[in-house]
Design brief:
The chain is globular. The chain has a six-stranded antiparallel sheet, with helices on one face. It has 202 residues and is of the alpha+beta class. The two termini are 27 Å apart. The model has no long low-confidence stretch (mean pLDDT 95). The protein binds Phenylacetyl coenzyme A. Keywords: Cytoplasm, Fatty acid metabolism, Hydrolase, Lipid metabolism.
Length: 202
């Protein structure tokens, strides 16, 4: 079963709500009574959602992403609009480069007030893979090296830039950089291996 436009919009709004709930959970405080009320409300919501959980409406891959890379893998934990843990990034292509821009919130904190290194790596993994796709070289990550130059601040505009560095047969090298303003925060190199052609040559 696939989602109607109305259902897509509803699911997107639900994901946004859940995302805000997750973010709030990181700095939550209140009296015993207030926390108990939240626990009860969430428990009810949880039961309702559990009852509907095996009726997935969203596809794994959306070829009609219309230039918005957050639509390609709707439930990706890094880029999917419908996954509440995905960071709030805009991801798009210009010529053969893919860019991601946005801010990370408390849910992605590693060192105090900074983004967790694993989250930064995960974003590189996804946006470098998108750069391969943008160059019509769909592939999987074989290895990923990230150089962390400066801590990546939370709640601050950050921009990732990625580009195809080299291709030889099925081996693809993609590079990426992450900046806050003019400051280089980190860089990455990924080796991607293109999907094998099947026996029909596709
Ligand atoms: C697919 C492949 C990487 C390669 O296997 P096959 O196709 O069977 O190819 P084969 O083994 O025949 O090798 C071909 C050539 O490549 C070379 N080579 C291979 N590996 C390495 C290496 N590590 N390092 C260096 N070289 C390596 C190998 O020597 C050979 O070289 P040759 O031609 O003789 O000179 C496989 O190991 C695999 O599935 N790994 C797990 C991948 C995975 O889970 N990644 C994480 C999830 S993806 C993600 O999250 C991003 C994403 C999100 C959403 C959407 C899209 C992307």
């Amino acid at each position: 079963m696939s989602a109607s436009e109305e259902q897509r919009q509803q699911l997107r709004r639900i994901s946004t709500q859940l995302s805000e709930i997750l973010d709030s959970s990181q700095t939550l405080g209140g009296s015993d009574k207030e926390l108990a009320e939240i626990e009860t409300a969430l428990s009810k919501l949880n039961s309702k959602m559990t009852a509907l959980r095996d009726r997935k409406l969203l596809e794994f891959y959306n070829p009609d992403f219309a230039g918005d890379f957050r639509n390609i893998l709707p439930c990706s934990p890094i880029s999917g609009y419908f996954n509440p843990i995905a960071p709030d990034l805009r991801i798009w292509q210009e010529q053969d480069r893919v860019y991601a821009e946005g801010r990370f919130g408390k849910i992605h904190e590693g060192p105090p007030d900074c983004v967790h290194g694993g989250i930064i790596s995960a974003v590189y993994d996804q946006v470098l893979a998108f750069a391969a796709l943008a160059n019509e070289l769909p592939s999987l990550t074989a290895s990923l090296t990230v150089k962390y130059r400066k801590p990546t601040p939370l709640l601050t505009p950050i921009r990732f830039t990625t580009w195809l560095e080299k291709r030889k047969d099925r081996h693809i090298i993609i590079h990426g950089e992450c900046h806050s303003g003019d400051m280089l925060l980190s860089s990455a190199e990924g080796l991607f291996i293109m999907y094998k052609k099947n026996s029909t040559g596709n």
